[in-house]
Amino acid sequence: MPSATIRVQAADFDMAAEVAALTAGRRDIGAIATFIGLCRDEDGRLASLELEHYPEMAEADIGRVAAEAQSRWPLAGLTIIHRCGRIEPGAQIVLVAATSRHRAAAFAAAEFVMDYLKTRAPFWKKEHLADGTSGGWVAAKEDDAAAAERWRE
Amino acid sequence: MKASYFAWVRERIGKSEESLQPPEEVRTVGELIAWLAGQGEEYAHAFANPKLIRAAIDRTHVKHDNPIAGAREIAFFPPMTGG
Questions:
Q1: Which of A54, A60, A93 lies closest to B77 in CB terms?
Q2: pLDDT digit string (tens) for A55-89?
Q3: The 3-state secondary structure of chain A, one letter per residue
Q4: Domain ranges in chain B?
Q5: Which CATH architecture has domain B2-77?
Q6: pTM, whole model, 2 decimals?
C-alpha cells in the first residue's frame, strides 16, 4: 500500500504544491480528485472558528481513515491535511487529494475520507461570533453520522 | 491514571488534564464517568449526559463498557466535529 501523507497543522496549505508532490515523476496517474473545506461566515454571523484537537491522536486517527480508503480503492497516493487553531471565514480548513489510474477511485476515496473525518477525527469546532460573543461548540450533525454510515456494506 | 478533557468537557471541568485515582470498584469507562459526575458541580455539569461523552484509552477510541484496568491515559470529549 502506498504511504499516505497526513498532516495536522496550524499553518495554511497550498493545494497546487500538494498535488505537485503527489504527481512528481509519475506517469501512471490518470486522475486527481481534490477537496478543500473552507470556513463559512454563516451569513455574516461568524467571526472565526476555533479548531481544538487531540494532538496525540489526530494524525493516527486520520491515518486509520487513510488506510481504510487505500484498502477500498486502488489509489496511487493520498494526502490529507487538517488545520487546527483559529480559522477565519474564507480560509481553508481541510485538504484531501487522492490520485489513481482512473477517476472513479479518486472521486470515491476523497468523498469517503471527508465523510469519515467528520465523525472519526478528534477535532472540535467552537464558534466565535461577529458580535464578540462565543457561539459555543458546534454540535455533531446527524447528517454527518449518516454520511459516514452509508459507506458500510 | 492521567485524564485528559477536550472541548466543552474541558471547559465545564475547568482543566485540560489531571491525575485520577478512582476506587477499585470503578471498572469500566461508563463507571468512571458516573464516578466523575459525583466529584463536584463542574464534573456533574460535564458528565450530565453520558450519551454525549466519547472516550479514548491510551489513544484508542473505546466504548463505555470497555474496562479501564491498566489504562495510563483516558480522554473524555464530545462527539467529534472534524473536517
A1: A54
A2: 999 999 999 999 999 999 999 999 999 999 999 99
A3: CCCCEEEEECCCCCHHHHHHHHHCCCCCCCEEEEEEEECCCCCCCEEEEEEEECHHHHHHHHHHHHHHHHHHCCEEEEEEEEECEEECCCCEEEEEEEEECCHHHHHHHHHHHHHHHHHHCCEEEEEEECCCCEEEECCCCHHHHHHHHCCCC
A4: 2-77
A5: Roll (3.10)
A6: 0.93
